[in-house]
Structure formats: C-alpha cells, structure tokens
Specification:
Number of strands: 6
Largest sheet: 6 strands, mixed
CATH topology: Cytochrome Bc1 Complex, Chain A, domain 1
Distance between the termini: 39 Å
CATH class: Alpha Beta
Number of helices: 8
Strand order of the largest sheet: 3-4-2-5-1-6
C-alpha cells in the first residue's frame, strides 16, 4: 500500500451541533409492530472537554454495562426490554447522548416514562460513591480486552488521528478513569446532560400506541408521525 502523501489535513466543514429546546417526539409509524424501538437523545460530550472522561465514567454507571441502572430497572426488575443502554458518541465534534430500548408495544409507554424518570434522577442527583468505586475498578480491569490484539490497537491509533482525539485518549485511559472523583463525575453530568431538551424517536404502530406514548412524555413540546417508508 502506498504511503499517504505529505501535506496539511483538509479543513473540517462540519459545524458544531446544536439542540432544539423542549421534548420532541418523532413517531415512525410501521403497521403491525408487536415490538418497538425507543431512542432518546440529546447532546453529549466532546473528546477535548475537560470533563469528558468523568462523564463517560458516570454514564457507564447509568447505562454502559450489564449491571447499569438502566439494565437493572428496565430489564432485571420489569422485563420490559432485553437490552437497555445509554451511550456517548465520540467524534471530531460534540456527539449525541442516547438511550436505547426495544420493549413490546404494550410496554412501550411505561418503559419510555421510566427512562425519562431515570434520566431526570441521574441528572439531578448524579451517582454515588459506591457506584463510582465499582465502575472504576471494572473499567480499569476490563480495559485489557480493548487492547489485546494488534487490530484493536491499530484502530485506536487511527481514531486518534482521524477523530482528532487527545494524544493520550487511549494510552492514558486507565489514568483518566482512576482520576475521576465523585465531584467531577456529578459535575459533568449536571453540566453536559439534561432531561428537558430531548429528541425521542419511537418506531411502532401509531394507531395502537401513539396516544399512550405521547401521554408518557411530560412537557412534550411537539410531535410528528413519519411513515416508515417515506423517502
């Protein structure tokens, strides 16, 4: 393979994203759906934020592991969705914070209401000392599986270059995690996340569950119904 030519990198034409205020619902109408897809999103983090790693650690507690709050409340306690997760995207610009579940149509409204309540509590009260202690040990010890092959290490090196990540984004990962305190974690959550400005997308059958879904979203600012096969 030929080496890449020398020269300056091209300018990035993408502007920083913004978030429209209020809770907005986009209902993707697909007939005869017995299962739904629920995606709740807002703005999240950027790799050069001073609190980027603190927010990532806190989010792992909220929805990043099999024992997270979301998994415990949605799957373990109620059995509403096989999976429940919260993710912080990483890119050259600020990326999304997203929550994802896939409950049965009959459970969609209740599941959505629970997720919004859990998010509100997370933003308002943050995490606990016990949760932080557990997740820091888990993330540090499991990081070996992120670098155990040459391919994984190469992907990390490419990410640093292509996504303009800090040089020690991966090489200093364990140190970044160990440096997170309860104060920095909860400060990052309260600064970066919110429960008021959200885009909520539900894929389901509108004639059956649109109204219960709308009713499950307090302070809903707007909604629209989009056919699943619209161009």
């Amino acid at each position: 393979m030929r080496a890449l030519p020398d020269g300056a990198a091209q300018a990035d034409p993408v502007s920083e994203p913004t978030m429209v205020s209020g809770r907005r619902l986009v209902f993707v109408d697909k007939p005869e759906r017995t299962q739904t897809q629920v995606l709740i999103g807002s703005l999240g983090t950027q790799p050069h934020d001073e609190d980027h790693h603190a927010l990532s650690v806190a989010n792992a507690i909220f929805g990043g592991t099999f024992t997270s709050r979301l998994m415990r409340e949605v799957r373990s306690k109620r059995g509403w969705s096989y999976g429940a997760s919260a993710r912080l995207g990483v890119d050259r610009h600020r990326q999304a914070f997203t929550m994802w579940t896939f409950p049965a149509a009959t459970d969609a409204a209740a599941c959505l209401a629970l997720e919004l309540d859990l998010l509100s509590t997370f933003v308002a009260k943050g995490i606990t000392t016990r949760e932080l202690s557990f997740i820091k040990r888990y993330l540090a010890r499991s990081y070996a599986f992120e670098i155990d092959t040459a391919a994984k290490r190469m992907h990390q090196a490419l990410d640093v270059e292509l996504l303009d990540l800090p040089a020690d984004y991966y090489s200093g990962y364990i140190a970044h995690v160990e440096g997170v305190t309860l104060e920095t974690a909860n400060g990052a959550v309260s600064r970066r996340l919110g429960a008021k400005d959200l885009l909520i997308t539900v894929v389901g059958t509108a004639s059956e569950i649109l109204e219960p879904v709308r009713a499950a979203i307090p302070e809903l600012a707007s909604h629209e119904v989009v056919p699943f096969d619209r161009d």
